[in-house]
Amino acid sequence: MQEQVTLLYTRNRSHPVSFLIRWAMPRSRFALGLSSHVIVLARGRYFEATMGAGVREVEEAVALKGQIIVRRREHSVPDLDAGIAWARLQLCTYTAQPASWVPAWACGVYCAAQLLMHNNYDWGGALGLGLAPGRNWADEEDWFCYEFAGGFMRACGRQLFDELSHVGETALLAINP
Fold first, then answer.
1. Is 47 left (phi over 0), alpha (psi -120 to 50) or beta?
2. What is the pLDDT of residues 106-137, one digit of tens each?
3. What's the predicted TM-score (pTM) here?
4. Which of 30, 38, 46, 78 is deepest in the core (most CB within 10 A)?
5. Phi, psi of 164, deg, nearest 5
6. For residue 37, which phi and psi values (nearest 5 degrees)?
7. How far is 27 from 23, CA to CA, in rounded Å?
């Protein structure tokens, strides 16, 4: 029996990075990208790859904080359990520890910077979008949100994106539900 996975395409109107992502990934020469982020919703759990935390599994309130859902797409998948198990293997496990020389008042900023540098977010894929021909979007060391959603769909048994070196909003929106 096929189960459903939902991809939530979102953007944050008040965040300049959201605008830059939509500008860098336009739908056409004249239209910004629809979204700047995608969240995977499976059995009431939200999975996403974020710049600040890497891949994470969170509650709805955390995933959607500050986000506007601009499109919601339901997809049938043959093996949702395999997808969820795969996603949990991708979760960022890095925990920042402040160095002994960091003053107490700066520990929060220091740890946030360390997490930003050492999480499993794919900065190269997100920032270099089309600049790395031949790269493997499915490399399981690092993910950015659109690649993570594509990897989740593939782990659920959907055979997708074999010919692509990069997965973005347009490729995900092209998936037949």
1. beta
2. 999 998 888 888 888 887 777 765 556 667 77
3. 0.87
4. 38
5. -95, 145
6. -160, 150
7. 9
